[in-house]
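INFO  loader      accepted 1 record
INFO  loader      residues=439
INFO  predictor   begin
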Amino acid sequence: MTDTTRNETSETERSLEEAFILSHPAAAADSLELLETADQVAIFERQPVPAMLTVWGRLSPDIAGRLLAALPRPVAVETMRKLDPGRLARILAAFEEDERKEFLSLVAERTAKEVRSLLQYPPDRAGATMDTNVELFRQSGTVADMRARLRRNRRPGRTGCFAVDADNRLAGWVTMQDIALAEPEERIGNLIRPVSGSVDPMATMEEVGEFLERNPLADLAVVDLDGRLLGAIRHASVVEAELERASLGIQTMVGVSRDERATSTVPFAVRKRLPWLEINLLTAFVAAAVVGLFESTIAQYTALAVLLPVVAGQSGNTGAQALAVTMRGLALREIRPAQWFRVVAKEANVGLLNGVAVALTTAVGVYVWSGSDGLAYIIAASMVVSMAIAGISGAAIPILLTVLRQDPAQSSSIVLTTITDVAGFFSFLGIATLLAGLI
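INFO  predictor   done
INFO  writer      dumping tokens
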């Protein structure tokens, strides 16, 4: 065969290949996904970039990502410049951050900016936590093809795979057990099981956690408004996010910034903590002012000063318990701000009953220590009052902050400590002043 004949045959094959791609892009994408990356690159090099644009939109994002990275740089650049930014974003989502920046630097700044905006999600949203490197399997494909791809891209702990239609819309889930037991020529569509549900990329991690609590899944699908699969949230990622959120809640409750870490610099830590310490100092002076109102009573009966920390400590612990339970209820959405009266009333009753029980024990201890019936009566009465107020405050503070659209964990313990100290001091010293004749 002469070189001329060989070139004519090659040109004929290329033309037939192009005609097939333009007429049947979905079938072309399915066929391309079965090839090795090197063979895919060879086809994309032979065909003009505009002819391949419809195929790019139908390729599985993980395959499209590997293909784009393997293409000669001029072909890759021309492809990215002609691709719709939405499709380009879905492809680049599977790239590492440094590699993504490198590729975006090759396109127009306007396109790069749009792609970056599509790839960015707030840190507490499902889109920021999802794994975008998810393999998609066509429901029209065979089990043999699926097994071949799985062997090439092994992932430990895999329990199954997502199946999609020709437009990458989520069709269902195929378990590894079904894949292993099925005949090689079996269609993937025959093995699909319906998924329990999916989430939007803008869903909060709280919503994701609630969904997984009701539907324990190893992989939760994240889809766009058209039902196209964007990625998956791994169960381990949700656990990690919940632990992070819980640790941040602990920090904010005591006036520590969410941004601070154990390795943060000293100036940064001081700048973040000092304002709240100053606020705490101000509230401490408020509590001290309450004690100052009863200076003459304390001077007359010094035993009252000894017992002040007992009352304040018990009311503080009562408030902290109510605060923790209420904040957990708000975080897990067990309660809503509209249920404030029910929650506050419950904690008031709990504080009252616990106060009665603790008051009896305290009264006995104070009587044994001081031998004074009056002092035992006074501290018992103040214990009941202060613990009831502490229960109400512990429930009301996070609900009020939620209504005001503030983080319910934000320094709530500082506010609560002030209220419980003031309530404890005022009730104990106020009752002691009124019943001074019994001491």
